[in-house]
Amino acid sequence: MKQLPIVNSPTLTCTLPVSGKKIKYRPFVIKEQKALMLAQQSEDADAINETIADVILSCTGGTLVYEEAPTADISYFFLQLRIASVGPESRFSIQCKSCEHMVPVELDMSTINVDMSKSSNVVMITDSIGMELRYPTIKDAFDVDKYDPNERNTKMLISLITKIFDADSVYDVADYPDSVLEEWLMALNDEQVDHIQKFVDNIPELSHNLEFTCPQCSTKQSRLLEGLHTFFRIGNDSRQS
Ligand SMILES: [Zn+2]
């Protein structure tokens, strides 16, 4: 038996919004699309994460690792992968807040972006003392569950700080044990902590404000679509009409 000819996929490029990394990828194939749909039907978060991770790894030739990239980069990349593989249009239903009617909506996914305008990974705590942080990855989100709920926020924050600096020096946090960093954070006042909270509140994420009018009761409303799992669900719910 002669080997069947190998069908190559096109190679596409995508620039990740948070890290700025350029990723080469191919669209997903039918086998992978089926795996994604099965994961979606299972409604099991672990199965969904695992399948998305596998598909991203295969489609990027191992260059984009799900757990290691900032969450917004993964959400954005997965959306581009979906667009390249099955197209930008998505049709799904949203429940009306007023009469509970299921409203069919259409969304052009190519219009959705990660807004980086409010985000900054450098936080000034005083006029001269500041810190540099990294944006959380999916692995960080998993790690949060390991911590005691009372110290979760502090532990998470410590894991995100990469540098502390003042007018004269830069302090690499890798050189300091967590206990020293924790003590340093605990010595900050409310106002100083607010600056850090701003970083947390503005961690970039893939989001889109969808506006629609219910055909049943004419109520004009909007819904904020945000995060990988939301867009994953919408991408797979797409009904052909
Ligand atoms: Zn309605």
Please, could you describe this protein's structure?
The strands form 4 sheets. This protein has a 4-stranded antiparallel beta sheet. It has a 3-stranded antiparallel beta sheet with strand order 5-10-11. By secondary structure, it is of the alpha+beta class. The chain has 2 domains: 12-114 and 206-240, no CATH class; 122-201, no CATH class. It is built from 8 helices and 11 strands. The protein has helices at residues 30-42, 45-59, 71-86, 138-144, 152-160, 178-186, 190-201, 228-237; strands at 12-15, 22-25, 89-95, 102-108, 113-114, 122-124, 130-133, 161-165, 170-172, 206-213, 220-226. 38% of the residues lie in helices and 22% in strands.
**Structural class, from helix and strand content?**
alpha+beta
Strand line-up across the major sheet: 6-7-8-9
Rg measurement, Å: 21 Å
Mean pLDDT: 92
How is the biggest beta sheet arranged? 4 strands, antiparallel
Low-pLDDT segments: none
Number of strands: 11
Shape: globular
**Distinct small molecules:** zinc ion
Number of domains: 2
Proportion of helical residues: 25-40%
